[in-house]
Amino acid sequence: MPDPSCDIGLIGLAVMGQNLVLNMNDHGFKVAVFNRTVSKVDDFLSHEAKGTEVVGAHSIEEFVSLLKRPRRVMLMVKAGDTVDQMLDHVLPFLEPGDIIIDGGNSLFTDSNRRTKNLSAKGILFIGTGVSGGEEGARFGPSIMPGGDPSAWQHVKDIFQSIAAKVEDGTPCCDWVGEDGAGHFVKMVHNGIEYGDMQLICEAYDLLQRGLNLTADELHQVFTNWNQGELDSYLIEISSHIFAKKDEDGQPMVDKILDTAGQKGTGKWTVFSALDLGQPVTLIGESVFARCLSALKEERIAASTVFGGPAVKALDSDRASFIENVRRALYCSKIISYAQGYMLLKATARDNGWNLNMGGIALMWRGGCIIRSRFLGKIK
Fold first, then answer.
1. Annotated active-site residue in 30, 40, 178, 193
2. What is the pTM of this model?
3. 128-153: pLDDT as tens digits
4. Is the dihedral of CA 149, 150, 156, 158 positive or negative?
5. Is 193 a catalytic residue?
6. 323 in active site
7. How far is 195 from 273, CA to CA, in rounded Å?
8. Which residue in 186, 217, 244, 245 is the catalytic one?
9. CA torsion 312→317→320→324, rounded to 10°?
């Protein structure tokens, strides 16, 4: 008979799932793991999780039997139908009071539905945003949980232990609100991320074409900016990108294709804004800019017909121009985050959620992609 000694179980051993498991293990939590492709469990145990306390299972029934009561089951699977299918597989082995956590990028309305449907069966549901990518998952992500409030006490210690910490040790994780609030906040985070990236692109364009700055000069400008009020993860990694050289010694940034894809969370943010009549214009334009960038062949064809204006470097004082671009970037960030908070406020009112607005800014202060000094002022 399996020993129910595991503090939490995780299903879905892609890189994010694996790294969260290893993070939990590092913080003293015993984790059971399962994957639909069962061979992945054995691969994980014999490689990345070798020498850890992680326990593998080869069936859902065995997996659930390894968990302490109330059982905590975290899903790190593809959003959409896959989550519902996995819930159908797990539910027969659970009992009232057990907790299911969806850590994927699920649409918040799906999490609203799952919270209510599972509550009717006595199961507590948490839909949580997890931000920070693979490295964040491994060493400290931003975690944004929402759902059934009575579930929070059962996962709080685990989540806050593995989350990123700000300077005073406060974890970048707190209860967000009811139903799909956690996934909604993660969605708005991703929309703001789209905006931040587009603003950085436009600042780069003004400096590169307007002043003819080289990649090395851009590296220095962004490094300087990162020492002040623009101090953030995205400005920091942008400065690193400008310094990166290809094998032939040429700047890598000049060789990167000018097209961008998207996974959908930015679009979802814009859809929500339209539904609620909120003018989240900056994120909307950022989504459209990605769509436009994808029309590479059409843009090339148009350039042969229209040519475009001749680009002439500005004669203005370089230092003043760079400072004006920096100020414009900072001002635009303020507008973008204000619009994001407008959407959070409107959605909370529409859904009857009691969102922790200051706490959301704190959760974004570390671990996540939009982490920045600026969020301390918003808090």
1. 193
2. 0.91
3. 999 988 999 999 999 999 999 999 99
4. negative
5. yes
6. no
7. 14
8. 186
9. -20
